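STRUCTURE:
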């Protein structure tokens, strides 16, 4: 995909501006055409271009009023779902587990403070963050009973970093996901059209390389996804999980049985078949982005490896690529 060179960074910024202010890019040429026709009434009219621009503006208006704004209200008013409150022993175990995964404690802590300098992260900032992270609260008064435990966590962090936090509160702001307000940036209908095209191209590439698509079996889940995914409505195979679709690469039961019947059985081949039957598939979860598109090369490399194994030992490794779709 796109790298981080200056030209590529500029391309990203220009694309963000275009897809955020798309209606403006429709409106300006429409006004220019209208002004030109008034200025020169004998000029060739541009009725078709004006009609297209008006249609695009109306489509954006319908999208904004009936889809974007309602979803924005839902996101802004829906309360966060908190996990069950932890006991003191569970909190301490979780704290130690977090520290065990932090090779650089100072860098790890700064990541939760939006990479603020350590001098800006003071004792009260750390306490505030720990209250959210381990006690699911932002109320200092409610945490008065846990002062000793909180001070213990702060002292452990100081020992790990080899420095003490300055008293008071600094300018750093911690990232507390369930307490922060939802901040959104508008993306036009044109952006979602591009996403739909990318989704369709990804679908075609995966099918061409032998993957089978198992769409979500819940029609309500499919209808709630935007942009629409017609390939999921008409998919031949359905996922046993109503809200989770995935791609599968590998032999089905019938193909595997045919392969086993086609070759002579020996003790070694029987052992290989038993091992293959017990072998777990490769399960792939993609990250935040435009779905599986950015991982196609990786998935196709897995397919090549599976085919190479299949040529030698029979049916190769199975692959399951899970689709993580945003939920309204």
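SEQUENCE:
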């Amino acid at each position: 995909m796109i790298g981080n060179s200056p030209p590529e960074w500029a391309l990203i910024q220009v694309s963000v501006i275009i897809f955020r202010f798309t209606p403006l890019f429709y409106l300006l040429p429409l006004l220019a055409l209208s002004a030109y026709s008034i200025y020169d009434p004998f000029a060739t009219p541009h009725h078709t271009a004006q009609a297209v621009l008006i249609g695009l503006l109306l489509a954006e208006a319908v999208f904004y009023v009936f889809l974007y704004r309602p979803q924005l209200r839902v996101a802004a008013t829906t309360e966060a779902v908190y996990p069950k409150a932890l006991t003191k022993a569970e909190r301490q175990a979780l704290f130690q587990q977090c520290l065990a995964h932090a090779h650089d404690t100072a860098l790890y802590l700064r990541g939760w403070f939006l990479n603020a300098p350590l001098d800006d992260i003071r004792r009260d900032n750390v306490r505030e963050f720990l209250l959210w992270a381990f006690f699911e609260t932002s109320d200092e008064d409610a945490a008065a009973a846990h002062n000793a435990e909180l001070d213990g966590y702060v002292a452990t962090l100081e020992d790990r970093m080899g420095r003490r936090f300055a008293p008071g509160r600094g300018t750093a702001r911690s990232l507390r996901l369930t307490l922060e307000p939802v901040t959104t940036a508008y993306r036009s209908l044109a952006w979602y059209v591009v996403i739909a095209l990318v989704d369709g191209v990804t679908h075609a590439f995966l099918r061409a390389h032998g993957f089978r698509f198992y769409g979500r079996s819940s029609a309500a889940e499919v209808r709630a996804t935007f942009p629409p995914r017609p390939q999921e409505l008409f998919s031949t195979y359905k996922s046993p999980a109503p809200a989770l679709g995935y791609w599968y690469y590998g032999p089905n039961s019938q193909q595997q049985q045919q392969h086993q019947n086609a070759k002579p059985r020996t003790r070694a081949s029987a052992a290989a078949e038993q091992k293959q039957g017990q072998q777990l598939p490769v399960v792939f979860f993609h990250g935040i982005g435009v779905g599986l598109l950015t991982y196609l090369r990786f998935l196709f490399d897995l397919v090549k490896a599976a085919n190479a194994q299949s040529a030698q030992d029979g049916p190769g490794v199975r692959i399951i690529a899970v689709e993580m779709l945003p939920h309204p």
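REMARK: The chain has 13 helices and five strands.
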